[in-house]
Design brief:
Structural class: alpha/beta
Number of helices: 15
Distance between the termini: 48 Å
CATH topology of the largest domain: Nucleotidyltransferase, domain 5
Number of strands: 6
CATH class of the largest domain: Alpha Beta
């Protein structure tokens, strides 16, 4: 016997979920998604559409909230469509509680691709970061720089194909004008690279971040392929407002230290020292590194939340442009989660937005 839920039943269910502590309801109460509308309208605009015929476009803020949901729960486009239909809390978060029409998986993909092509995703992140600074949540009394791998679907290429891709070219046979090769080329990620750390191999990209010491909010980031060394990005992450810079031994070395000292002479560098062959660290250096680690470890809480609470650091997109959009949304989704946590612990703060 099937059971039909009426409107009153749905309201009671939502009330019970609220009493149990719906995290999306808390997020909706604290984050004003309307502050992103102007930028989203620019990103999702379609200049080629000059008439009003056909199906109207979906609300840009609704789509943005769906893209954030995907990162909070690390779910695919198909699973996102299913979960919106299935979960009351998702529909309440999106304002679709009693609306039968929802964006399907292909629509979600199309809007995310529009965001990638518009180049506006990082502007969304920077807009909210500026609001966090103005509200006092980001103090910049100290900054921690680090990176984490963002793995992508692994490619099954030959050694010769990988060699050609690594040289910035496309294998000639992939360029054949046939439907099979066109489909194959569309599925080949020519931007992702292999890297190895602690004897484990990774394929994909890197999310290089700068985290505010006090709040553990991500304040700046950049996305590269996985083979780019961490030390190559710290200069573009740090700025003149940073008072103290914490980083692990991957950022050690006199050349980088000199560059940072020249560009940001007022910043105190708390970068781990690194031993070398026949030149191990002294007891004092080890003690200094341990003291720095007690502070620098806060960045691991950020990556830990992304991997555990947000479902991991794996992306389903192809190419660095799309990887950058997904990573931007993930960093923004993490900040949203962190703000909810901070607001629940502190009082007297102005809610951003």
């Amino acid at each position: 016997m099937s059971i039909q839920l009426c409107f009153g039943d749905e309201e009671r269910e939502l009330s019970e979920l609220s009493n149990m502590g719906d995290p999306l309801e808390k997020l909706l109460a604290i984050i004003d998604f309307e502050v992103f509308r102007s930028l989203l309208e620019e990103a999702f605009s379609n200049p080629a559409r000059t008439h009003r015929c056909g199906r109207p476009s979906w609300d840009c803020v609704l789509i943005f909230k769906i893209l954030i949901l995907q990162q909070l729960y690390n779910i695919s486009d198909e699973q996102t469509e299913y979960q919106i239909r299935d979960r009351l809390t998702f529909r309440r978060f999106l304002g679709l509680s009693r609306c039968p029409a929802i964006p399907d998986a292909k629509t979600i993909w199309n809007y995310r691709d529009k965001l990638a092509k518009s180049g506006k995703s990082k502007a969304l992140f920077e807009l909210y970061t500026n609001m966090l600074e103005n509200s006092g949540l980001i103090t910049k009394s100290g900054s921690i720089v680090d990176s984490t791998f963002v793995e992508a679907p692994r490619q099954r290429n030959t050694r010769e194909e990988n060699k050609t891709i690594k040289n910035g070219k496309t294998p000639e046979e992939w360029l054949a004008n046939t439907p099979a090769m066109s489909h194959k080329l569309a599925q080949k990620d020519r931007d992702a690279r292999w890297a190895k750390k602690h004897k484990k191999s990774y394929f994909g990209f890197k999310n290089h971040v700068k985290v505010d010491l006090d709040s553990k909010l991500i304040v700046a980031f950049c996305v590269t392929n996985a083979s780019v060394h961490d030390s190559h990005t710290i200069v573009q992450l740090v700025d003149s407002s940073d008072q103290v810079i914490f980083a692990d031994a991957a950022y050690a070395g006199a050349p980088l230290r000199d560059v940072l000292s020249e560009r940001y002479p007022n910043a105190i560098q708390m970068i781990h020292e690194r031993g070398a062959r026949c030149k191990p660290l002294s007891k004092q250096q080890k003690a200094d590194n341990a003291a720095k680690s007690s502070v620098r470890c806060r960045v691991e809480h950020v990556f830990g939340h992304m991997k555990k609470a947000m479902g991991g650091a794996f992306i389903r997109s192809i190419g660095i442009a799309r990887a950058t959009v997904v990573t931007t949304l993930r960093n923004l989704a993490y900040n949203f989660s962190r703000i909810v946590h901070i607001m629940s612990k502190r009082t007297g703060l102005t809610v951003p937005g």
